[in-house]
């Protein structure tokens, strides 16, 4: 019987940061609802507020501190968790009045603090959850985090300090969660971790079991198994290890989406060495050519940092030449921002902000022309798209070549036929601009739940 003595408490929640942090937020929200707490959309109605922070770059730290300050000003009862929480001294020095501070992936600790402040109102064995748990994404796609932490030692990054070394989840546990998400109506799984292609390295690829059969804890086996669930599977944050070739082969087979998110960061050997990244851009160009030969429909996304300490004009020109040669489909770029605790802070040759911004503008201008050409080349193609949002006049969707929330969208004029978010339809590309595509709806795909092989057709 439900304990009627306890009030049903409302928890406010602010989620900042990357998709890995989003998964952490979803886990906390799911546990809150499982235990009978309500989620409040306003400071005024909340009994306390949880702020899941980001601490990756200076701008993210500022955003997180602003969010904590706003929550304190409007509510007063605040628990801080997430990556900035790993630097608890920074949070407590700024806001000594917070209830508690925890680091990332701290479900147990956060729930214990909430229990101490606001006892759970009901029997947690009661089924108070929607299928698939609480999600911050639309119902038809979900992030699936396969590991915590990172073993890389990039000089500009403090993620290993914040989240610790790589810890891979058991493959059977991941696949069971994936099955539950599919049963709940998810049509696309976005696979995330700090270093997705390294999945299983820390366990030495130990054997685990799923559906009674043994599987190695390795990204290739995981991807193949996920590809058998009949949904779209998209890989993010894939470091260019040699075995990525095997993942591209799975893409060519149609088991996972032909989309690679490979954060390359730079091309100049000197800068890559200073960043503690692979220092052979010629090899990267050969790898790109090889991947495209295996899977011609492959979409490649990457991110780059300009203005890294010691970046000379020649280094930057090397990067521009690489961008022109690589002809990547999607690029995100950032100016270098010092992060407290990062090894790169001690490197000589700091770049003035105005030069950083000028280089960023030149890089993005170069890439924008390439992206526009790439999108123009898709004119006339018929593609399968997944509907994300519908307004009275417009359908917003994405195909295998666009990651939701990150890349551009496909814009389709709404028609009389009744459609819903989460449906697959066939669309013909009729126009393009620098970032987005425009298409017309051809017909609803008759077997959308099995259409995860994506072949563009002229």
TrEMBL record:
Gene3D superfamilies, sorted: Methylthiotransferase, N-terminal domain, Nucleic acid-binding proteins, tm_1862 like domain
UniProt KW keywords: 4Fe-4S, Cytoplasm, Iron, Iron-sulfur, Metal-binding, S-adenosyl-L-methionine, Transferase
MTTase N-terminal domain sequence ranges: 9-119
Stored Pfam families: Radical_SAM, TRAM_2, UPF0004
Coarse class of the protein's main subcellular location: cytoplasm
Keyword Hydrolase: no
Protein name: Ribosomal protein uS12 methylthiotransferase RimO
UniProt source species: Thioploca ingrica
Higher taxonomy: Bacteria, Pseudomonadati, Pseudomonadota, Gammaproteobacteria, Thiotrichales
Gene name of the record: rimO
